[in-house]
Amino acid sequence: MDEDSARARRRGALLTWQHIASLPPSLPVVYCGGFNTQKESTAGRFLLGRSREHGVVGDMRDAWANARMRKNVSLIHTYHGFKGDKQGTREFLKLFFRALCLCWDRQNQDLHMDWILFRGRSLAPISCEVVNDNIDGFYPSDHYPLYAEFILPRTVRPVEEAG
């Protein structure tokens, strides 16, 4: 989503949600990417069903929060600006104080700007990981990607395309 405009992120979340809501409710949906905002933002709260936008409420769930197993939980912030864990003193202190706040605020358990959201009772996230791989200190992105594994029951069949 747009990295500069909260209004554009809210609008993007609404447009995406309208498309997801038009799909059959039994169809499992995974929506992931760089949202460029935290889950406690207006766009995040809307997609996760905690606020109303233009009269509708999203109903996505967060794979990170719902996974049975999480890896690299100490990486509470997925944006790192190509620096990895070598953020510098100022950035480290900001993250440290935000982490302290997380101890008191259980609604906001991470500061990820990259999310894997899902919808559908048939999907169950088994594991989720913040991937911090690098080669000699060089990172492929300024954000750590997230990786999730889901269980999908055998009863869910692929939708056959009309021929």
Instruction: Tell me the fraction of residues in β-strands, as a range.
Output: 15-25%
Query: Which structural class is indicated by helix and strand composition?
Result: alpha+beta
Q: Write the H/E string, N to C.
A: HEHEHEHEEE
Oligomer: single chain
Helix content: 25-40%
List the helices and strands and how they pair.
Blueprint (H helix, E strand, L loop, with lengths): L5 H16 L7 E6 L7 H6 L13 E2 H4 L2 E3 L17 H16 L9 E6 L4 E7 L15 E6 L12
Parallel strand pairs: 3-5
Antiparallel strand pairs: 1-4, 2-4, 5-6
Condensed summary:
With 163 residues, the protein is of the alpha+beta class. The protein contains 4 helices and 6 strands; from the N terminus they run H-E-H-E-H-E-H-E-E-E.
Structural notes for this entry:
- The chain is of the alpha+beta class and 163 residues long.
- The chain is built from 4 helices and 6 strands.
- It has helices spanning 6-21, 42-47, 63-66, 89-104; strands at 29-34, 61-62, 69-71, 114-119, 124-130, 146-151.
- The strands form 2 sheets. A 3-stranded antiparallel sheet has the order 1-4-2. A 3-stranded mixed sheet has the order 3-5-6.
- The longest helix is centred in the first third of the chain and has 16 residues, at 6-21.
- The protein is globular.
- The N and C termini lie far apart (34 Å).
Task: Give descriptors for this structure.
163 residues; alpha+beta; three-stranded antiparallel beta sheet; Endo/exonuclease/phosphatase; three-stranded mixed beta sheet; 6 strands; globular; catalytic activity; Endo/exonu/phosph_ase_sf
